[in-house]
Amino acid sequence: MTILIIEDEEPAYKRLQKMLKELEPGHTLLDQIVSVSSALKWFSENEAPDLIISDIQLSDGISFAIFKQVDIKCPVIFTTAYDQYAIEAFKVNSIDYLLKPVKKEELEKAIAKFKALTPATAAPAIDINKLLQSLQPAGTDYKKRFVVRYGEHIKTIDIEEVVYFYTEDKATFMCTKDARRFVVDFNLDTLDSMLDPKIFFRINRQYIISIHSIAEMFAYSKSRVLIKLNPAAKHETIVSTERSSDFKHWLGDEK
Q: Domain range spanning residue 164?
């Protein structure tokens, strides 16, 4: 059995490593991945393992971003510090989720479930949209407001006032309708899971925009789309090639 661990917390990784040695002494641990970016690089250079054990929150975002960009067929066991409501919701995909700190007996049961899989009963492809929606606590909607600081002041900004988010110099900024910009405490991968996907769309690695922020659109090279935002963005905003098809579906509010 070949296993890949995606975990950025060293104590949690060592704990998994120790338990796997006890439960599966014949396994091969391929690597420890600590971020979304390094996982994408690893999968571009290596064949998929038999099993992935992955934390949800990584150093540069949530691990679901990996599965958005890489077609991974092997089973995944997620580990998470989220409460039980999220765990139960995630199980619509017939994939195991273990609360941290992971207990040895729970990991043993998860591995037994993996071993019991056959080609006919293998877990279905991961439904990323359902997983992201499940991160929302039961009975609540998507993010409604943000708390921001400017100078010595603190204020709240309703989501209806936000037109787009972007990254610059390793920080994440929020732009409002009146062209004010504030630093927020979430990276774009995390924001992607918190925002209403009917209103907000991630056009590339640097920008998440609101449908209400689009002033003009122009055809660009390789089927890409150049967008003029209102208020104007500090950077050129082009829908990436891999996102162009989804962007057009989003514009038309298509499922």
A: 145-251
